Amino acid sequence: MPDFPDGTERAVIVQQDFGSGDAQEAVEEIRLLVESAGVSVSSIVRGPGRFIDPATFVGKGRLQMIAAEVSAFEATLVVFNHELSPAQERNLEKALQCRVIDRTTLILDIFAQRAQSSEGKLQVELAQLEHLSTRLVRGWTHLERQKGGIGLRGPGETQLETDRRLLGKRVKLLKERLVRLERQRVVQRRARLRGGALNVSLVGYTNAGKSTLFNQLTHADAYVADQLFATLDTTSRKLWLSDAGNVVVSDTVGFIRNLPHTLVAAFHSTLESVSRADLLLHVVDSTSGMRDFQIAEVEKVLNEIGAGEIRQLIVLNKLDLSGLPPALERDEYGRIRRVRVSARSGEGIPLLREALSEIAIEKRQNLDDRPPAGIF
H/E element holding 97? Predict the structure, then answer.
């Protein structure tokens, strides 16, 4: 049996392969997610999935394999790299005699651990409650008792109905608080961008190196760690470029495949900095074998939040690991399309600053060329 640190929760990961061709990468990603949550991976159960059992997601044979691994490693948690229905979770927990969670619950838990700002915590709680609301369904027998409660519920209301009502009230309160915070941020953003400064947002797959690049560019001290979703809260700093003046750069949460819709919706106000940017620095881990897939996943989320049409500059990061030299690439029209850098060592950063200066000057020229208001 592997040597686990004392007190560390042990998990068995379950990955069903449905012929998508990226099963190995999916397994590696879920392993990193579990470890990012502070849990040790004791075993991974994977295999071909020909169908989804409506009761337990996996067939009887696979369920027995999972049970054997749970017993052998004394695991207290089973993580499915899939989305489970409430009934499937309940049936699996009964069969395996341990906690069972799916991919969405795991990601929500990581977000809950990472959130630092008051707004980030509110957003995570909202996402968790909206996810929980889908779990309040028939079959929660311990909630179905009639309890008449004093001061909380009406006569004859079931515990399940009470939970739904109180959850709905809390969700409404959180949304109202987030709207107020969003209004405050809009005022702050207008003040910050007054004067037409180029507004840049860093986007990319989680762990691509966005925060390291942000720190390298702006000399900030944003939290950096070799883990998924190290950054949740948006941080903005001014970057001075000798040829173009100030540029506002924002670091944002990383994206991932199958990012839960509840998170995208809850983090709407945070991701708004992306949808209102003039330029997206799309940071890509150039050493990843799944580079093209990760780019496509980021594009998918950008389209979902209304940022799909914003100009992008691809930043191929981690050239210190790939061994390639710094470079600045242009398209057939002479527009800068890609910059190759190492956010860790600083190689290629002067080229990136040069690219930002060129785009900022271009924006200022476009503003100067606009006719005065009221002239047609």
Answer: none
The gap between the terminal CA atoms of the chain, to the nearest Å, is 77
Q: How confident is the model at residue 188 (pLDDT cuts 50, 70, 90)?
A: low
Instruction: Supply the DSSP symbol for 98.
Output: S
Q: Answer yes or no: are the C-beta atoms of 254 and 297 closer than 8 Å.
A: no
Contacts 24+ apart (CB under 8 A), 335-339: 337/313, 338/313, 338/314, 339/313, 339/314, 339/315
Give the distance from CA 348 to its chain's centroid.
27
**Is the pLDDT at 232 greater than 70, yes or no?**
no
How far apart are alpha carbons 65 and 47 in whole angstroms?
Answer: 11
Q: What percent of the chain has pLDDT over 90?
A: 33
SS3 121: helix
Q: Which residue in the block uniquely carries the two structure tokens 């069969």? A: 95
pTM for the structure as a whole: 0.74
- Which residue, 37, 59, 42, is CA-closest to 50? 59
Contact 42, 2 (CB under 8 A): yes
Checking phi first, is residue 195 left (phi over 0); if not, alpha (psi -120 to 50) or beta? left
| Positions of E strands within the chain | 10-17, 40-48, 77-80, 99-101, 198-204, 235-241, 245-251, 279-285, 312-317, 327-330, 336-340
Identity of the residue numbered 259: L
Task: Please state, in angstroms and rounded to a whole number, the distance separating the CA atoms of residues 101 and 89.
Answer: 7
**Lookup: tokens for 65:** 């394999």
User: If you average pLDDT over each of 18-32, 230-244, 278-292, which comes out highest?
Assistant: 278-292
| In contact, 210 and 231? CB cutoff 8 Å | yes
Structure tokens at 153: 């519920």
Note the residue count of the chain. Answer: 376
| Residue with token string 């999935």 | 49
Pick 259 or 186 by higher pLDDT.
Answer: 259
- The winner for highest mean pLDDT among 110-124, 285-299, 337-351 is 337-351
Contact indicator for 69, 42 with CB cutoff of 8 Å: yes
The distance of Cα 111 from the centroid of its chain, to the nearest Å, equals: 8
